Write the structure tokens for this entry.
Amino acid sequence: MMSESSNESSSKELSSLQCLKCNKCGATFYPNQDGTMHFRWSTGAPGKLEDLASLVCQPYGNDECQNPERFTYNANADSWQKRREFIDRQKIEGWPD
């Protein structure tokens, strides 16, 4: 059984975990135990910070943007160009049945 002081300490740790909601795109950012952040799209689906940065923050973001990766370039991140290339390949190869 947990002692009162241990229980109070856990409550303080949980209350110190603050999530951030982006006013620009609606994404919600949650802190990880190691000090980094993860996020969920406005739909609630989990996502990658670098994909959000490439698809939304870099082309459309402003000072309201909460993404810590918004100024970081990542060649492996999803992008509108990669999505366009995928669609173009599907047009050439034919859409799967």
